[in-house]
Amino acid sequence: MKYRRILLKLSGESFMGDDSYGINYEAVRHFAEEIRSAVEMGVEVGVVIGGGNIFRGVKGAGKGFDRRQGDYMGMMATIINAMALETVLKEIGVNARTMTAMAIEGIGEKIYYKQAECYLKEGWVVIFGGGTGNPFFTTDSGAALRAVEINADLLLKGTRVDGVYTDDPEKNAEATKFNHLSYTEAYERNLRIMDLTAFTLCKENGMKLCIYNANVKGNLKKILLEEQIGTLLD
Fold first, then answer.
1. CA neighbours within 13 Å on the CB side: how many for 63?
2. Phi and psi dihedrals of 6, rounded to 5?
3. Whole-angstrom distance between the N-terminal and C-terminal Cα of the chain?
4. In terms of DSSP bridges, do strands 154-159 and 109-110 run parallel, antiparallel, or are they unpaired?
5. CB-facing half-sphere around the CA of 41: CA atoms within 13 A
6. How far apart are CA 182 and CA 173, in angstroms?
7. pLDDT per residue over 126-168, tens digit each?
């Protein structure tokens, strides 16, 4: 199999489902089942989840919160989402463990890449909460960092669109999709795929990146079977 170990990045908003806020069980269940399909193929899976369904540091700063404190609040939101995913994964028979960028006794042990790799090799899904553990960094940067740390073969960013387009396909019906892009071409075209820090980290470390629609059942498995799903960057 081409991809023996992956890092899946999901947005916090994806956990809302049809709700306007918080965590929707059925939405989390969908992603848990997608992850289970990968585990059943023998793929080692790490996960990073955003926290935008609960709190965003940038929005908090706009409402008067100190940006640094707001970002830490956002990190806590990602840990709540990690706990939710861990719970549902265990419900459907998948071993999962939450590791956090800051030590929180009883919730998750502090992230250490060697220990994370041990869990992955044993077949556990490792959910990385707390972003990078530092303010001013997005969870995209956290995902890129964890993917590089665990030597993932592929970083997948799950979105609600089926890849990277020349323009926003939800606003421009004439936008065309890319099946494959180099990081250099994506940068020159100023395509907003990830924040620049995350983008650079992936590019400099040769991390393959796939942007795909994570809401479609079976898409993750199809990518692992090397079907043409989403947009691949390398």
1. 8
2. -130, 160
3. 18
4. unpaired
5. 23
6. 24
7. 999 999 999 999 999 999 999 999 999 999 999 988 889 888 8
Residue with tokens 């806020």: 21
Residue linked to tokens 């459907």: 92
User: Within a 10 A sphere around the Cβ of 168, how many other Cβ atoms?
Assistant: 10
Neighbours of 51 (CB within 10 A): 26
Q: Can you tell me the distance from the alpha carbon of 51 to that of 232, in angstroms, rounded to the nearest whole number?
A: 25
129 CB-near residues (< 8 Å, 6+ apart): 49, 75, 78, 79, 81, 82, 83, 98, 99, 100, 101, 108
CB atoms within 10 A of CB 59: 12
- Confidence class for position 93, pLDDT limits 50, 70, 90: very high
**224: phi > 0 → left, psi -120 to 50 → alpha, else beta; which?**
alpha
Query: Which amino acid is present at 211?
Result: I
